[in-house]
Amino acid sequence: MQGIQDFSPFDLLWEQIHIQFTAIVQAKKIIFVESKDEMIKKLKKEKSVVSDFTDIEEEYQFLFAWVRHATFLNVQSRAMAELRSLIKLAHETDER
Predict the structure, then answer these.
(1) Would you say residue 30 has pLDDT above 80?
(2) What angle do CA 87, 84, 94 make, to 5 degrees?
């Protein structure tokens, strides 16, 4: 935090642009879908059931490629809109 105290408002804005762009690129790597048939089975909940025999009850979440891709498109659209706004603001306020 001490390092940014000397930043001008434009420098802070430029830093935000870098952070936003980095987040967009990172999101692409995290939610990448290889094919339309891809499905991820993820353990959602696990609990032990004790009766005459100890049993483990598991609940899974299935993540289909189209759901992951749709989620990514929504998130990317919002992130790109924010990036666009930051760039527009930087362009309007840059005194250089």
Answers:
(1) no
(2) 15
- Beta carbons of 82 and 23 less than 8 angstroms apart: no
Rounded to whole angstroms, the Cα distance separating 8 from 1 reads 14
pLDDT for 11? 81
Q: How does DSSP assign 38-84, residue by residue?
A: -EEEEEEEEEEEESSSEEEEEEEEEEEHHHHHHHHHHHHHHHHHHHH
Alpha-carbon span 95 to 39, nearest angstrom: 50
Residue 1 has pLDDT above 70, yes or no: no
Tokens of 67: 């759901």
Contact at 8 Å (CB) between 86 and 13?
yes
Q: Where are the domains of the chain?
A: 64-96
Q: How far apart are CA 75 and CA 55, in angstroms?
A: 39
Q: Count other Cβ atoms within 10 Å, centred on residue 90.
A: 15
